[in-house]
Amino acid sequence: MPDPILSLRGISKSYGSVEVLRKMDLDIHAGEVVALLGENGAGKSTLSGIIAGSRMPSEGSMNWQGEPYAPGSPREAIDKGIVLIHQELQLLPELSIAENVFIGRWPMKNGVVNRAEMVARAQEQLARLNLHIPATRKVAGLSTANQQLIEIAKALALKAKLLILDEPTAALGGAETEALFAQVRKLRAEGVGIIYISHRMEEIRQITDRIVVLRDGERVNEFADSATPVRTIVESMVGRSLERMFPALPSPGTRKVLEVQAVSGANGAFKNVSFDVHEGEILGIAGLIGAGRTELVRSICGADPLASGAVRLDGQELVLRSPADAIAKGIVMVPEDRKSQGLVVAHEIGENIAYANLDRFKGGWVTRKLKSALAKKAIASFGVKGRDEQPASDLSGGNQQKVVIAKWLIRNPRVVVLDEPTRGIDVGARAGIYGIIADLARQGVAVIVVSSDLEEVLGVSNRILVLAQGKQAGILDHEAANDVSVMELATL
């Protein structure tokens, strides 16, 4: 085998007395896709940041294309041909797509930015990903999935020699994921080395050549064959035997809690959708990106206006002008992007929980004692690994998601809507989220789960509503639902 393009030897990283990486060795060869797997907190992001120049190792050395490599900034790494696509979006919303793709690297002509060339080249990269949006359009207002594809287009435009993809499909549906995979295979054939970080096991099996597993900051295993059984890989990640991922589904009651009748969105994203959710039922909502899933549940929760139709809770028709109206009636939502929509990540866990429950504080005064008591109850009830005075930014993705869920559930809602509840969450933490969802149903709560992960929506749902291009394609019972039946409806 030829020499690796990137070699890491003895890489360690500490923050004070906390060691997050220990003696890490890793080789990446040209033209191979290496999966980097591990639970949240295993060290994947820290290692990626060191390679990409955003973090400095405490000890160890790196070689890039046979030469010592120690980037002092992401710019130095990019100049060497090493590009990291972050899981968290890094786009500037008020700039155009083309400006975001070429920011800091403007094509110039006679001392000024050559906008025609910039737009044309950006449009070419979007087309490679089957994203048919004008490159002159502002990023503001685009869906999370489309913004993720624009981040990938930025990296393609850089002509990287080593590409690090951190959860690149977390917000993508099946068609968008296949377009991305086609580009990954093309780049691999062109000799680009790729580090692929994902929690989606089926993706790993499809796209990677080799699997490296991290646990608690150490490299614990390597699998030379991506066809290694998923259970074997996951047990290596979590360091224990993995029991059934999805809990047994409780049987729903006969009483209708939520009734949605012939609703259409004011923005045109969905039309004439009808369904109901019974007491103790988990209704999944599936569909491709752009099918109107998120827009539908946002309208039910008062975040977006309805053009027509009715929403009833326990038989009473609701007038929802804002999320506050829905919350007051007992309908709460865990949004798809927890960091920008679900949490104030720089603030304490206790403060985040208090923000959703200000009506529980007498006279409107939020005392530290009462805030702490409320937070500790939520932390204990939902198994959050953190203290109430810790900033939410200190938590892993799974624990952040538990905080978002906990702040609403202590209100004892009638309806809980979860949009992409395990996005960016490792396999071990997912089981905990699924357990919370099942427990809610057992308590008689009506639960709606929106997910682009087909295995997930099949595993947690009593019934599945399938949307296709903003229209209701059908509703499947758990027994009749499988990946084929759902996708047949989703592609109508």
Automatic annotation (TrEMBL):
InterPro entries on file: AAA+_ATPase, ABC_carbohydrate_import_ATPase, ABC_transporter-like_ATP-bd, ABC_transporter-like_CS, P-loop_NTPase
Keyword hit for Nucleotide-binding: yes
A GO molecular function held by the record: ATP binding
Family membership: Belongs to the ABC transporter superfamily.
Superkingdom assignment: Bacteria
Record's bilayer topology term: Peripheral membrane protein
Source species: Allorhizobium taibaishanense
Pfam families, A to Z: ABC_tran
ABC transporter domain ranges (all copies): 6-241, 255-492
Main location: membrane
Protein location: Cell membrane
Name recorded for this polypeptide: Ribose transport system ATP-binding protein
Gene Ontology cellular component list: plasma membrane
Keywords, alphabetical: ATP-binding, Cell membrane, Membrane, Nucleotide-binding, Repeat, Sugar transport, Translocase, Transport
